[in-house]
Amino acid sequence: MKYSKATNYALHTMLYLAVTSPKQRVGVQPMAEKLEVSPTYLSKILTQLVKAGMIESSPGAGGGYKLPSNWEEISFLDIIHAIEGPVSMFDGCLNHNPGCLIQRVMDDAEGKMEEELKQQKISDLAEKAPSVL
Amino acid sequence: MKYSKATNYALHTMLYLAVTSPKQRVGVQPMAEKLEVSPTYLSKILTQLVKAGMIESSPGAGGGYKLPSNWEEISFLDIIHAIEGPVSMFDGCLNHNPGCLIQRVMDDAEGKMEEELKQQKISDLAEKAPSVL
DNA sequence: CTATTAAGGAGTTATAATGTCTATAATATA
DNA sequence: TATATTATAGACATTATAACTCCTTAATAG
Ligand code: SF4
Ligand code: SF4
Questions:
Q1: What is the DSSP letter of B72?
Q2: Residue B71 lies in a domain
Q3: Span A17-51, pLDDT tens digits
Q4: Based on the structure, what is the number of domains in chain B?
Q5: Do B3 and A100 touch (CB under 8 A)?
Q6: pLDDT tens figures, A89-103
Q7: pTM score
Q8: Which range marks the domain in which residue B41 is found?
Q9: How far is the alpha carbon of B25 from chain A, nearest alpha carbon, in Å?
Q10: Domain CATH number, residue A11
C-alpha cells in the first residue's frame, strides 16, 4: 500500500513544469537531473502523462515538454490517475453478496481521499512555492 | 497502489469472527475454507492480528481465535494498520525543502481517508450484515 | 542532410507479496 | 502421563510487480 516512485516522479515533474515554464518547452535531461533519476526511465513516465493529456510534447531540436492550455485545472488526482490508473485500491470482493459492506466502506474511504486530491491543483502549489525545486 | 490480499483476508476474518462468534473460539480451517486461502498463510496473518491486539488466540484442543473484550471499538483503520503498518503511503520527499507542499497535500489526503476508516467499526458491519459470509 | 528530441519495445534487475514446508510450543482431554 | 489438537515460528520457494536499461524508430528544426 504505497504510491509508486513513478507517481512521485510524475508529481514532481508537473510541479517543475508549472514553476519553471508554463509556456517554454523543457527536455527530459534537466528534470531527470533534478529528480536524480535516469532520463530514459523518466521518459516513459512523461509519455504516460502525454497520453493522459497532462502535458504536451514535441520531438526534434528545441522540442521537449510543456503544460497544456488547461494546465491550471490539473489536479493531483488527475496526475495520480494518469500513472496508477483509475482502478480501485481495494478489490477483495468475491461478489458473493451484492452491495457488500466491506467493499463499500473501502470505496467510500478512498472516495474521501480522492475528493481531497481533486481539489488540490498543481497551479496552487506553483504559486505558493515558486522555488520549491 | 493497491491494498494487499493480506489486508483483504484480515478484514474478512475479522468480520467472520464478529458475525459468527463474538464469544466462541474458531480455528483457522473453517475461515481458510470460506476465504479460499491456504490455512498456513492465513495463520500468519492471524498471528499479526494477535500481536496487534485485534484478536486473541489459544493453542491446543478446543483452541482457536476469538475477539477481545473491546472488539466493538475496533475500526477498519486498526485492522489495516495491523497488516500494512502505520507508514505513510507517500514518501517521495527528498527533504530539500522543509514543510514541502507535495508531501503535505498527499499526507492530508491520506488523512481524510484514515479519518473515514477510523469511524467504521467492524461491529457496525456485523449488525448490518449478519449473514454476509 | 544532420543534429536533436520524444516514443516504443524488449529485455533485465530488484523488491515485495504470496505461499509452502517443517519443527516447536502450548493446551485440553482421556 | 500420553495423545490429539491447535497456534507460533522460521526458513524457504514461488510469483508478481516495480524499477530500470538498452536499442531502435519517428518526428522536427535548422
Ligand atoms: S466484500 Fe462482502 S460480498 Fe465481497 S467477498 Fe467479502 S464478504 Fe463477500
Ligand atoms: S516533496 Fe517538496 S521538499 Fe520534498 S523533494 Fe519534493 S519538492 Fe522537495
A1: G
A2: yes
A3: 999 866 789 999 999 999 999 999 999 999 999 99
A4: 1
A5: no
A6: 998 877 666 667 899
A7: 0.93
A8: 5-128
A9: 23
A10: 1.10.10.10
